[in-house]
Amino acid sequence: MNTTLYSTKSEFKPTIDVQDAKGWFEYEPSYDGVVIHINTMGARLFGFTSPDDVIGKKVNELYAHPFDHEKTLSMLFRDGQVNGFYTLMKSQNGKLFFIRQSSSLITEGLYKCPLKVKNEFEQIQSSVL
Predict the structure, then answer these.
(1) Residue-wise pLDDT tens digits, 24-76
(2) pTM for the whole thing?
(3) Which structural domain range is residue 28 located in?
(4) Is residue 17 part of a domain?
(5) Inside any domain, residue 12
(6) CA–CA separation, 36 vs 59, rounded Å?
(7) Of 82, 110, 87, 106, nearest to 97 (Cα)?
């Protein structure tokens, strides 16, 4: 009788190393800057195990320099969108990395009241520090 052993070790990594991240990620903050949606790979890029761990956090906690968040918001309110804005971000464990983000303001009604911001971003550099 031949017995074959199979590995039960999971190939799933609970967090993603910034240098392993590739592609586009997305998140949506509410108008007041609270994350209401983030995709799984985006959450892992920031060092969280799942999107649920990020939802409810303030967006400016993800920026290495919170002033960059203010610059993004001022461009959004001026132009309605931001394309190709480079920003230094930080993961939950403090790793710094650059992203190139594209954002658009989602509005509603006759007076175009802002509801939320749709963000897509691409990691640019593996790691700064």
Answers:
(1) 688 888 778 899 999 998 898 899 999 999 999 998 899 999 888 888 888 88
(2) 0.69
(3) 23-123
(4) no
(5) no
(6) 10
(7) 87
